[in-house]
Amino acid sequence: SADKTKTAAAGGATKPAGTQAAATPGATVAPTAAAKATTYPLTVTDMLGRSVTIKAKPVAIAAISPTTVEYVFAVGARSTTRSASVRFPVDASGSKDIGPSYQPNFELIAAEKPDLIVADSVLQPQLKQNLEGLGVPVLFLGAQVFTDVPKGLRLAGQVLDQQGKGEAEAAKLEKKLVDLKAKLPAKKPKVLVLNGTPEDFFAAKPESYVGDLLQQLGADNVAAGQPDVGRFPGYTKLSLETILTSKPDVVLSITAGPPGPNTITASLSSNPAWADVPAVINKRVTEINSDIFLQAPGPRAGDALDVLAKLLFEAAAQ
Fold first, then answer.
1. Tens of pLDDT along 213-233?
2. Which end of the chain is more exposed for a tag (fewer CB within 10 A), N or C?
3. What does pTM read for this prediction?
């Protein structure tokens, strides 16, 4: 589906992440005493900077991207819809498939008779006019950088009358980052993140979602400062010469297309031209999950940070 084109190069099938944020030990947050109920009508500013008025507590919610579906479920509400590539949470599997995020079926969305549509501020701003034409309040939420995620959780919680849950989830994520940073060694590894196919890949800059997570953890991104190249902001092209000169300690890859043996990781690890790259020498070239780093940035940011911290720092400490 077109939903699986969210890579810097071409389509990328997703694998469900193996962990859930709720299962993270040591990050419990005390429930807010007497969580404030939302008063309606409510007017909020969404993540496209639009003023949105919601007359009454939304009952039928139509979230239409992987990220927005996760926001809605993360704060304890449900979405009657899901985009085609949604694999998480499992509870969303019974929601109505409204097609790919880039080209959702507006008739199918309208047929669910939603009283609130939750659209993606990163993926779907171009759908604003079509969605507003459905005559239902449209709230845009998204995740371009880590700090967007707690913001999105709090906003979803407020709008859906789940303020206590939204605040608890947001605070848990913020605490997770603080706790991780406190444990990290002073020496920061040089990292290169590649996305695409073995023949045609792009490098993630600090301005991309995965690049921002790396920056939050203090990694030295070798693609920093390069111009944007390709369809998606925050990605660039690096010459082999630039990569060899930058000597990355860690290479992380998100290979587009269905899972299989033909990965960027396998290609680089066996390519003589890359033989002198420290990450290849030390076998620190790893495929990472496209779901939490690319397809569905959002509430599972805590899982994503855990994965990156382990790949960046634990191998160095051994």
1. 999 999 999 999 999 998 888
2. C
3. 0.87
